[in-house]
Amino acid sequence: MGSFIQLSNFPKIAPYAQLFWEGLLVTVLLSLFTVAIGFCIALVLALMRLSSFMPFKFLNQDANGNMKEGGGAIGFISRFNPLSFIATAYVEVLRSTPVLVQIFIIYYGVFSVVDLPTFSLFGFIKFNRFFPGVVALGMNSGAYLCEIIRAGIQSIDGGQTEAARSLGLSQVQNMRYIILPQALKNILPAIANEFVVIIKESAITYTIGVQDLMSAVNAVRGATFIIVEPLLVATAIYFCLCFPTSKAIAYFERRMSHGDKR
Q1: Is 162 within a domain?
Q2: 110 falls within a domain
Q3: CB-based contacts of 71: which residues, under 8 Å, 6+ apart?
Q4: Residue 141 within a domain
Q5: What is the CATH number of the domain that holds 143?
Q6: pLDDT at position 179, please?
Q7: Given a cut of 50, is residue 255 above it in pLDDT?
Q8: Global confidence as pTM
Q9: Domain presence at residue 1
Q10: Strand 125-126 vs strand 120-121: parallel, antiparallel, or unpaired?
């Protein structure tokens, strides 16, 4: 029986270096687009969860327009917030189901009835496989980023909202110019960490034919019947992506925290 890792196998992988470089580019693009889409989804979901939209509150109001205590079924309906309910349901479902299942549902379910263009990006990235992968990962990331953004918004002292109202700012202006800038500063490290997580999770998109690093590993394995060595190469590439990114995030987090110290 041969050794677990054979150094003589690495030269056999060298002719397939182009596949790994292409997989590296696909992985980085997947991560960037996923975080961008996930952030947009998460921001909308977080604002929905924090909204006070109750269309049926008139059912349980007194003569002065104040909500009555209790009220049974009428009270429950009057306090029902459909926006918050939809956002909460989305977050709980996406966070409670495997990302692999979500990718299969998006690719084989949703996009099976949508005719996507079949062109290739950069000559080797198949758009009709890359796009569903980005959408599925973006939707999943949005569920996690939603909680991060919501926590960041709620961490801002309520006195600032009262001060904004005293200055005549609307709720939208208060959220745009006062709350969100401070919240984003607080949650930026967590968002950056989500980017690192996505780099690693993007490997799962090879199951729908996205030509990422794991797809390169499978191609090399099928051509050379070498298993462990291509995996080690992919591991090294993922490490070279994630480790420096994590250190850069930690550096900027320290720099940003300097201004908060008294």
Answers
A1: yes
A2: yes
A3: 60, 78
A4: yes
A5: 1.10.3720.10
A6: 86
A7: yes
A8: 0.85
A9: no
A10: antiparallel
